[in-house]
Amino acid sequence: MKTYIALLRGINVGGHKKVPMETLRELLTKCGLKSVQTYIQSGNVIFQSSKEATELEEIIKKNIQDYFGFEVSIIVKTPSELQTILDDCPFQQNEKEHSFFIILNKIPDAELVAEVQQISYENEEIIIKNDALYFYCSTGYGKSKFSMNTFERKLKVIGTARNYNTMIKLLSLSAEID
Known about the structure:
By secondary structure, this protein is of the alpha+beta class. It is built from seven helices and eight strands; from the N terminus they run βαββαβααβαββαβα.
């Protein structure tokens, strides 16, 4: 059995796509995932399975759609993949701790990355490495001009954002069930 972390995009935000975590844990346990845990309401699931990540993404997506009646984008990573994304953050430690990590469902085309890297806003820094977009805003995320939908569209990917503290906690929780 391998340990995985599933990142659900856009649930329990502004009253839309409501997914109670207790119900989600029960649903995912019934579809064969083991040691299912959730962390906060924004769609972080730690579990174990003998299946591969791409198959798990489809299983989770289908079960959520069948049970809740709406589609949710799912990205499944191993703890080591998530650790690599955290370790590869190009920002200094104090900026890293206030950054957002946008985990992408695939590595975007290099030409699209080069084009998107030209986008710049005052007080904001965006760096794309492999399957992650690193975002730092010195004035705070709430005051940023950053739009994940724009970057997803331009890069032709699906992404879901987590802050530094959530990344650390997910890695910690995943280590506890290994």
